[in-house]
Amino acid sequence: MNRNELNAKAKTVLRSIIDRYTAGEAEVVREFFARPRSKEEYLEMVLRQIGREVQIAHWLVRAGPMGDKLEKGVGRWELYETLEHMADELKHYALLADIAEWLAGRKLTAEELRRYEVHAFWEPGVDDKYLHHPLLPEAARMVDVTKELLTDYEPAFWKGIVQLSEGGGGGAFIEASRVRGDEFHRRFAKAMEQIIEDELRHGAEHIDEFAERQVRAQADLERATRALTAVMAQHLRVRNEIYSFPLSEERLAAISRGEIGPPPAFASPQVALH
After folding, report:
1. Tally of CB atoms within 10 A around 266
2. 34, 104, 121, 222: least buried by Cβ within 10 Å?
3. Confidence of residue 28 (pLDDT cuts 50, 70, 90)
4. Range 135-164 average pLDDT
5. Which residues lie below 8 Å from residue 95, measured CB to CB, with a gap of 6+?
6. Which among 31, 39, 86 is positioned nearest to 247, based on CA atoms?
7. 60-63 contacts, C-beta under 8 A, 24 or more apart
8. Chain segment 70-122, per-residue pLDDT in tens
9. CA 75 to CA 69: how far, in whole Å?
10. Would you tell me the crossing angle of helices 3-32 and 249-256 to the nearest 10 degrees?
11. CA 31, CA 38: separation in Å to the nearest integer?
12. What domains lie within the chain, and their CATH numbers?
């Protein structure tokens, strides 16, 4: 197999993994909204999702040192992309926090809004309270999965896999943007619409770049397949946790085997959304 054939195969394989778990995350959302929920249940779900966005608050300390090292070890575009990512996460937090306070009917405290604050992946130097949240065992396991991978893969390869998996392929956000019903459903769907393009840009859009830079031999593709599957499978479990576990263990296992249900309410995260 020549390099061009390997590159094309890598893109197809990586896309198929992301598509499988994207469909699974969409199914999580469909099942959650398949029956009526109390305002308290909706609020808890929103707060758990906020925990994935508000983590940006303890990320911000890294921006200052990067600025000091601009053009002296930190590239201009590296700094820009980091700040853009931070701004996106802060926006997502603000959108969801507004909904949480609307549901609660009052101003929420910092402790309430940051109750589920959790780091998305392993990173040395981060306080363990963000890495292993006692209320979010699946999110804590995600940190461990990414830490385990870091011992087996070089940093650039690991970073690429984590980047590909961000947002779980976007399926949950897109499915949530299609929910219809009462005022909460409308507000939540509108917030999800605003989050969608950011999440898709952060994740699967990087498949081509990853395949070209990191997959130089069949062995590289096999490593990428194992790593991306591990992270995406755990991301699905995290999404299931956020939405109060609507999918059973049996169903999660079936999705990992490729037994996905009806396609989510969109064609593919490759398609630009307007």
Report:
1. 17
2. 34
3. very high
4. 92
5. 191, 194, 195
6. 31
7. 60/86
8. 999 999 999 998 899 899 999 999 999 999 999 999 999 999 999 999 999 99
9. 8
10. 160
11. 15
12. 3-256 (1.20.910)
